[in-house]
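Hi V.,

You were right to ask for the full record rather than a summary. Here it is.
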Amino acid sequence: MQLNGLIFTLPKEIKLLIGAFVIVLSIGFYTGLLFVGETSSTNPNGIEEHYLGNENDDNADVMHFKKSEQEMLTLVHNHVLSMSIIFFLLGILVSITKLPKKLKLFLIVEPFFSVVFTFGGLYLLWKELLWMKYIVMFSGILMTLTFALATFVILYQLLQKKVA
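Predicted structure:
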């Protein structure tokens, strides 16, 4: 079965279903990013402070306490499971788009590495492997960029009438 470009031949109802799914999924994904921005920080030291606490910092604006092991395991468990399902479904949709093979493979596989590095990195950071905050930051950015590109490609190609 030829998957490359299959998205152009789908019936209108299926295209509408896929489009609605990708839009609602994107709302959820970007809302999660807003939550991250509100609760931790968009810099490596803020990430460290959010998970390891800052109770010894007299100059801290907001007091954070080190997360418990139960909190960390719950966070890692929930995010790895939910993000793997999200990226599995998104990967299936990317597989039916028309893209160069290497770009398509990158968009399909990379998010799984980023999920492991981001959330595994948070756990290792919590275990006080402090340099992991940079891995978490980089992999989180890469995961977001990959998500954005994949969803853009899917939505753009859903709106196309014919194979370009």
